[in-house]
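[Q] Does anyone have a clean C-alpha cell version of this?
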Amino acid sequence: MRDVANHIPLITTQYSEEEMMSRTKAFFEEMSKRRTVREFDTRPIPKAVLDNLIRTAGSAPSGANKQPWSFCLVQDKGIKHKIREAAEKEEYENYNGRMADRWLDDLKDFGTDHVKEFLDEAPCLIVVFKRVYEMDEHGGRHNNYYVNESVGIAVGMLLAGVQHAGLVAVTHTPSPMNFLAELLERPENERAYLLIPVGFPKEGTRVPDIKRKELEEIRGEY
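[A] Here you go.
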C-alpha cells in the first residue's frame, strides 16, 4: 500500500487462539439469542444508552468514509402516533393488494397484520435514513458511494448493540416510507431506509419458534 500522509498507526488488540475461540463463541451465543420482538414495555431507555448505540452504528465502514447515514431518535408520543397512523395506512395497502399471495403465505406463521401497536408502545423509534448525496454551502451535490451497502452494515452493528444492551427491536419496513422524511422534516438528500422500534420486551412476550440455518448451509469453503 502506498504511503499516505494523513494515515496514522493502527491501534488494535490481538488475542491468543484460545482467547479468540472464547470471545467469538461468547459473542455468537449472545447474538444467537437476538429475536424480532413486537411487544414492548413502555419504560424509557436511558439517553446515554441510545447515544452509545448510535455511536456504535456510526463506527461502521462506508464507501470512501462518506458515512451516508442519519439516525433519528423519536421518543415524543405524538410523533410516534403520527408515524403509526401513516405506517398502518401503507401496511393496510400492503396486506390487501400489494403483497403477492406467496408473500402473505410466508408471513402466516408470524401472525403479523397491518396493525402496528409497537409503534406507540416502544419507548424509542430509531428511524434510519440513507444520505444519497451531500450538499455543499453553495447548493452543489456530491455523490456518496455504496450507500445501501454502507447503511446496511451500520444497521447490523446497531442491532448487535441493541442485543448487547439487553434491549429488543423489530426492523419495520412500512413501504413506501416517504412519509417518514415528511413527518420528521428531513433534508432532501435523505431517504428513509428502516424504522426500528427499540425497547425492553413486555413481560410474557412470546416469539415464533423459528430455526436458523446450520453453519454448513451458509458457509462456503474453497
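[Q] Thanks! Anything notable?
[A] The chain has a mean pLDDT of 96.
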